[in-house]
Specification:
It is a single chain. The protein is an alpha+beta fold. The chain is built from 2 helices and 3 strands. The chain has one domain: Immunoglobulin FC, subunit C (Single alpha-helices involved in coiled-coils or other helix-helix interfaces), CATH 1.20.5. A 3-stranded antiparallel beta sheet has the order 1-2-3, with no helix packed on it. Helix 1 runs antiparallel to helix 2. The chain is globular, with a radius of gyration of 16 Å. Bound molecules: zinc ion.
Length: 108
């Protein structure tokens, strides 16, 4: 039986996820469907190899998989959280804002 090089597999998986999500961002204004497909693939790879998608790359809707696009998205700040509503499926995501470690929400 072949020994699986899990560490290497994960590394490659992460590289592919990076690539796919980068492409999704590049293409989302030209071909939204294709961009969604890229996101889908990236998520499948992440699941298959059990890698976490880096926070800064999670620029898509968890429910429908469409990448965030300023015209398909509503961002509101309320109390100590940012509320992101996906206008494709209506999924609402609440991101708490932690004091000191404030993260910028990119919504391009
Ligand atoms: Zn959605």
């Amino acid at each position: 039986m072949l020994r699986r090089e899990k560490k290497l597999e994960k590394e490659i998986a992460l590289r592919r996820i990076n690539l796919l999500l980068g492409k999704a961002q590049e293409i989302k204004f030209e071909d939204y469907e294709l961009a969604r497909r890229y996101v889908e693939l990236a998520r499948k790879i992440a699941m298959r190899y059990r890698v976490r998608i880096p926070k800064e790359l999670r620029l898509y809707c968890k429910k429908c998989g469409y990448p965030y696009r300023h015209d398909r998205l509503r961002v509101r700040v309320s109390k100590s959280r940012v509320i992101i509503t996906c206008l494709n499926c209506g999924f609402v995501r609440r991101v708490p804002i932690r004091p000191k470690r404030q993260k910028e929400i990119k919504n391009k």
